[in-house]
Amino acid sequence: MTIDHAGIADAHPRTADTRTPLLDVLAERWSPRSFDAGAAIEARALDAALEAARWAPSASNSQPWRFIVGRRGTPTFGRIHAALASGNQAWADKAAALIVNVAETTDLDGSPRPWSHYDLGQSVAYLAAQAHHDGLHAHQMGGFDRDAVRGAFGLDERFDPVSVIAIGALASPDALPERLREREVAPRRRMPLDELVLHRD
Ligand SMILES: Cc1cc2nc3c(=O)[nH]c(=O)nc-3n(C[C@H](O)[C@H](O)[C@H](O)COP(=O)(O)O)c2cc1C
């Protein structure tokens, strides 16, 4: 049995099964749906997650990532939550914060930033890793209405809302409806490494 940072006994360890040891934060990060609706996010932890995103590498150091940050109980949180797909709305309302991850797809002159989605994904990976390190959990979502987010926050055409990430304190799987509880405790799986490496000498 492991005890997570929120002090919740986890009878179903979520740690990645790897051939070689990984950094703890990479092996232990996973995407829960059961968040503690009573736990707020500390400003310092939110700042740290955003700082981590800020310090990701990017093509020509273009930093084509932007974030719309809403803490639970704020109008921004409500507007992000309203844009989520219903399956995500069902659990993401308990997260301490919802963040829209936005790619800047062109520069101010209209020149394309071909790596903007790649760079944004990498910065969100940093954000999630830092959040995990700070005792939080994060869950990325592609299921949301991009036009609704665009309209709600008046995003320019240059900006593409790519994903939403829920961040918060882990709660027990038993707090979820049965269908989601089953997914919460199901074994985490990945394709074998041999299938991922196309050539290796
Ligand atoms: C770009 C992206 C979109 C995702 N969209 C959703 C989503 O809409 N709803 C959801 O519940 N999970 C979503 N996920 C979470 C994945 O299902 C999850 O990361 C994957 O199953 C691996 O599980 P793990 O993060 O616990 O290792 C998304 C993850 C990513 C990276």
UniProtKB/TrEMBL annotation:
<feature type="domain" description="Nitroreductase">
    <location>
        <begin position="85"/>
        <end position="168"/>
    </location>
</feature>
<dbReference type="GO" id="GO:0016491">
    <property type="term" value="F:oxidoreductase activity"/>
</dbReference>
<comment type="similarity">
    <text>Belongs to the nitroreductase family.</text>
</comment>
<feature type="domain" description="Nitroreductase">
    <location>
        <begin position="27"/>
        <end position="69"/>
    </location>
</feature>
<dbReference type="Pfam" id="PF00881">
    <property type="entry name" value="Nitroreductase"/>
</dbReference>
<keyword id="KW-0560">Oxidoreductase</keyword>
<dbReference type="InterPro" id="IPR029479">
    <property type="entry name" value="Nitroreductase"/>
</dbReference>
<dbReference type="InterPro" id="IPR000415">
    <property type="entry name" value="Nitroreductase-like"/>
</dbReference>
<protein>
    <submittedName>
        <fullName>Nitroreductase</fullName>
    </submittedName>
</protein>
